[in-house]
Known about the structure:
The protein is built from four helices and no strands. Helices cover 67% and strands 0% of the residues. The chain has helices at residues 17-30, 35-51, 58-70, 74-89. It is mainly alpha-helical.
Amino acid sequence: MNQNEWMNDPLVADIDQAKLQFLQMLVFESQNLKKEQMLPFLMSIAQKGKHQNISFNDNEIEAIVAALRKYSTPEETEKINKIMSMKKKR
């Protein structure tokens, strides 16, 4: 996936750029983490999001996921689908 291409997709045009930059940072910083490093990383990101008052409503999440899928490899899409199925189970 081109690192920033999804951020320019019309699907996410109505989402605040600060939110999109926050997500891009999350993706970029998590790329090389090992499985056991992910939970502490995600907890840290959640804290940063709270401090910056960044949150996403369901419509924003759906738009972001749709845009990401458009620009993802089959492997990346599979990861996205797994994450989204875990979210639905909650």
